[in-house]
Structures are given as C-alpha cells and as structure tokens.
Design a protein that fits this description.
The chain is α/β, with parallel strands linked by helices. It folds into 2 domains: 229 residues, Alpha-Beta Complex (Quinone Oxidoreductase, Chain A, domain 1), CATH 3.90.180.10; 157 residues, NAD(P)-binding Rossmann-like Domain (Rossmann fold, 3-Layer(aba) Sandwich), CATH 3.40.50.720. The chain has 12 helices and 19 strands. The strands form 5 sheets. Strands 5, 6, 7, 10, 11, 18 and 19 form a 7-stranded mixed sheet that branches. The radius of gyration is 22 Å and the shape is globular. The two termini are 32 Å apart.
C-alpha cells in the first residue's frame, strides 16, 4: 500500500490510498504526484541564481525524511558557488546547506522523528554507522557521498561525507534553499528543537555555529587564552562568539569591512584591526602580545582572501588554488608552539605556504569540514541557557522568492549585511 497525504501550495491538496492492481486509483494518484511542485533557488551560472518551480522531493530510502523548510540561510561558502569558483556545480542544482523546518514525511525506518516535529539539519550527511561516524568524525563519513570529493591526490581513499547543495563533488544532493528538501539518514542528522525556541535562535546550528565552535576548539581556545580571528563574516563572528564562550581573554578580529568590525567590538568586546588601514595585521598583533603572538589563530576566510596581484592572476589561470594571504597572516601571528585553525574553505594547492616558518615555530594545524552532529546538542543547550546568542548577527530576513537579491546583497556587502535568512513561508 502507498500513501500520499502531504499538501503542497503549488498543487491541489491530495490524499489518496491505493493497492496494487487498482489501476484507476493508481493513475489518479500518479498524476497527482507528478503535479507536486515547489519553489527552489537554482544555480544557472556565475552570479546567476533563480527561484524556479521544480518537482518537490519524496522519500527514496526507509531512513529518509522530507522537511518543510521554515528558515534557510545564505552561507559565506555559498558565495564560492555563486561566484562560479567551485567545480562540479551544474545548471539547475538547488543550493543551500543551512536550513531547518517541520518534518513533513518520514520513511518507514525513521525512529526518532515524527511528522510535524521541528528540527534543524546539519549540513553534512552522515550515516552514523561507518568507521568515521563511530569516531564522531561525521564530516568524514565514508558512505554518503557518491561523488569524487575534492582531494587531488586521492588514490583509492573513499570520499568524505555528502553535503547538501554543494556540488556533485559532494554527492549532488539538492539543498535547502527551497520549500521542501529530502534529508537522508533522518535518525542521525536532524536535531529536534523545542517549540519555545524561534528559528532565528537555532537555525545556525546547521553550520556556522558548530563551525565557529569547532574552529575555536581546534585553535586551543580555553580560559585565559588569546586568539586572532581572520575574517569577520558569519563564521568569523561565530568563532569570536564561541571563543568568548570558551573563556578566551583576548580576541583580535581582522577584516576590512569596518561595519562588521564595529559590530564585533560592540557585541563581543574584541580588539579590531582593519587591514586596509594597518600595513601588517600580524605585526600589530605581535606588538600587542609581548612580541610572542597569540596562542591560536583562526582562518575564517579561505581561498578567496584578498591577496596579491600575482596570486589573483595565478588563481584566474588555474595555476593556484586561491590566495594564501589569510593563512600566511595566521602563521605569522601565532606564537611558537601555538595552533592554526582553518575552518575557511581551501582547495587545490598554494605556492606560498610558509612551511619553514610553521616548522621553526612548531605550529600545529587543525582544519577541515565541521563534525556538526557532534557539537549540536551542547550548543543547543548553550543557546537555551542564554550563553550563546547566534541570532544577533542577522541583518536581513527575506522571502525565498527574493533569494537572488539576497545573494547580491551578501556578495557585495550592501546594506551593512552580516547574515541573511530566507523564509519560504513569507511567500505564501
């Protein structure tokens, strides 16, 4: 027996039940299912994204759920896709990996969730059972990504976890900047949210909050420590918030958008450095730390850091994997025996990686995708207790239909934009 009972705003409400051999009801139900459509943001080319009408998802495996999206966000790493900087993206792909909503359908093997429950979904798709998931290295899950992954010198190593809305290198899974999204492994990823907590408080558990937390932990941040964060975008701001949460005494934040620095100084009490006004941010940090440097640095920028003309040219010619400017500053600003944490996205290779400096200083490097499922329960508790308030970085809330304008605002740093939430419900 097959049941279909999920209404859709773009199609007549359908509720039907039929059995094999009942041909007329079968074709009636089949026709109704074919008409189930939704709105979603699709990639069409560099700086060309459009909200289009597409088929909405259904259950494909017993452990799937289908989520009715109530809130989704534009992430800084979405801008790499928007700018056409990532391979493996195809026209028509649905973007978005920060989302939450209400469970609309559940597969027969989903035990932890029920229809109507509010959940936030981590951006990594993890099985919960493989070698790496058992070690809580969820971003390394070796069963969920049918794509190649981004490793150049791959050999026969299995790909890491699949990601929502993030190219066919990571599985080509449709993203959550849509009215509905299929979520594989519903028993592992989605985290149930109390009804008393509004979306804005918990949405960022999907990515940037656990990413900022893992970045701070990887940087060795603890009570009384010092840390420098390079990049005041959403991940940089969450790294700062989590560094405070973990007890950092002195925090430097480096960026060149003054409005972001001003917000961080007022909100988190950090020391700010505008690298358009200071010749060498790392030298400034060293000068304020008794000529030693900070205990740890966080590179929250990644390969699109503002670099030299040579780096820009090499990257345009595909002879360089991007700019290493932010990473070089991290190496320079960190004390001997300290740690460089890298949540910013990198790919390929960098010609100016100062391995000799890192060796001489005895630096430790910790980096990679976030094991979000590991950190989400702790961070949810911190939000509930008022110790973390991730919603304060939000500057724009737009309907899903306005997503293309949202990308433009975020990309061009218009209207003092820090973070944008898209709400499909505002279109209804």
């Amino acid at each position: 027996m097959i049941r279909c009972a999920r209404p859709n705003a773009a199609a007549p409400t359908a509720s039907c039940e039929f059995r094999e051999g009942a041909s007329a009801p079968f074709f009636l139900a089949h026709d109704l299912l074919k008409k189930r459509l939704m709105k979603a943001l699709t990639y069409q080319g560099a700086r060309d994204v459009r909200v289009e009408t597409v088929p909405d998802p259904g259950i494909q495996a017993p452990t799937d759920i289908v989520l009715k999206v109530t809130s989704t966000a534009i992430c800084g790493s979405d801008l790499h896709l928007y700018r056409g900087k990532m391979p493996g993206l195809e026209s028509g792909d649905i973007l978005g990996h920060e989302f939450m909503g209400e469970v609309a359908e559940v597969g027969s093997a989903v035990k932890n969730l029920k229809v109507g429950q509010r959940v936030v979904v981590p951006f990594t798709i993890s099985c919960g059972d493989c070698f790496f998931c058992q070690k809580e290295l969820f971003a390394a899950c070796e069963t969920t990504n049918p794509g190649r992954g981004a490793i150049i010198n791959k050999k026969d190593i299995r790909s890491g976890a699949g990601l929502f809305g993030y190219t066919h290198l990571y599985g080509g899974f449709p993203g959550g900047q849509a009215e509905y999204v299929r979520v594989p492994h519903g028993n592992v990823g989605p985290l149930a949210i109390p009804d008393v907590m509004p979306d804005e408080k918990v949405l960022f558990l999907s990515d940037i909050l656990p990413t900022g937390f893992q970045a701070a932990v990887n940087a060795g941040v603890g009570k009384g420590s010092s840390v420098a964060v390079f990049g005041a975008g959403p991940v940089g701001l969450m790294s700062v918030a989590c560094a405070r949460f973990l007890g950092a005494e002195k925090i430097f934040l480096v960026d060149h958008h003054q409005y972001r620095l001003d917000f961080a100084k007022e909100t988190y009490g950090v020391e700010t450095i505008n690298f358009d006004q200071v010749d060498d941010a790392a030298a400034e940090i060293i000068g304020q730390t008794d000529r030693r440097g900070v205990d740890g640095s966080i590179d929250a920028v990644g390969f699109e850091a503002k670099g030299s003309t040579i780096e820009t040219t090499l990257a345009a010619l595909k002879l360089e994997g991007g700019s290493g400017a932010s990473l070089r500053q991290c190496i320079a600003a960190t004390r001997r025996g300290g740690t460089v944490s890298i949540p910013g996205v990198y790919g390929g290779f960098l010609h100016a990686f100062l391995i000799g400096d890192a060796f001489d200083k005895g630096l430790e490097f910790r980096m990679g995708q976030t094991h979000a499922q590991k950190h989400m329960p702790l961070l949810l508790e911190a939000i509930g207790n008022g110790l973390l308030k991730p919603e304060v970085i939000v500057t724009h809330t737009l309907p899903l239909s306005d997503a293309a304008r949202g990308y433009e605002i975020f990309d061009e740093k218009k209207e003092d934009c820090r973070k944008i939430i898209l709400k499909p419900g505002l279109d209804r």
